[in-house]
Amino acid sequence: MDIRVVACDIFGTTVDWYTGVADQVAQLLPNVDAGDFAERWRDRYIPSMNRVRSGERDWAYLDTLHRESLDDLLRELDVEADDETRDRLVLAWHRLPAWPDSVSGLARLRAKHVTATLSNGGVALLTHLVKAAALPFDCVLSAELAHAYKPDAAVYQTAAALLDVQPEQILMVAAHKWDLVGARKAGLRTAFLSRPLEKGPNKQADQAADVDCDLYADSFLNLAAQLE
């Protein structure tokens, strides 16, 4: 494989969204089950993007979709929260802890490859998240740049065009089967990165046995060793 770019999914693959969101929910909504709230909010993630992908609603970046899902969840649970609290909850997705191997593993990958985010998060969200978690990416690429959401081919193809490489020169790294299937259909190389706690302690994460891709790794450090 002639890999020039290592493009990484962020939520769940590079950072621990469950712990990060649940911890901030616990601070802002002390009377709710923070872990359950985080899971329910995340469950609305793909359906909200599918409404954009299907044309049911106009394009909106992820912060807007997160706010709409949050408002819906608060109504469902009959939880009161003022606008300032809701705004702060949406910004919780901008500040999430990196998995223990992410910083060192990405630094090792960056020594020989361009490293880039390739996430459904918006540009501002990803910039804030990368800075807060000190993640060593060379650039921030977002679905927002294509006005589409993964797994639409336009997101992966836009990344290749912006970095002036062929699709097959990008290795898409993700802990999610659906992301890797989309990347593979768009012509990218793919690597499954196992994250057993990606969906939190109560749900089973995607398994390597269920994913057809070029490489399999259990950490960014392991992936870097394979590419070396």
From TrEMBL:
<dbReference type="InterPro" id="IPR006328">
    <property type="entry name" value="2-HAD"/>
</dbReference>
<dbReference type="InterPro" id="IPR006439">
    <property type="entry name" value="HAD-SF_hydro_IA"/>
</dbReference>
<dbReference type="GO" id="GO:0019120">
    <property type="term" value="F:hydrolase activity, acting on acid halide bonds, in C-halide compounds"/>
</dbReference>
<dbReference type="InterPro" id="IPR023214">
    <property type="entry name" value="HAD_sf"/>
</dbReference>
<dbReference type="InterPro" id="IPR023198">
    <property type="entry name" value="PGP-like_dom2"/>
</dbReference>
<protein>
    <submittedName>
        <fullName>2-haloacid dehalogenase</fullName>
    </submittedName>
</protein>
<dbReference type="Pfam" id="PF00702">
    <property type="entry name" value="Hydrolase"/>
</dbReference>
<dbReference type="InterPro" id="IPR051540">
    <property type="entry name" value="S-2-haloacid_dehalogenase"/>
</dbReference>
<comment type="similarity">
    <text>Belongs to the HAD-like hydrolase superfamily. S-2-haloalkanoic acid dehalogenase family.</text>
</comment>
<dbReference type="InterPro" id="IPR036412">
    <property type="entry name" value="HAD-like_sf"/>
</dbReference>
<keyword id="KW-0378">Hydrolase</keyword>
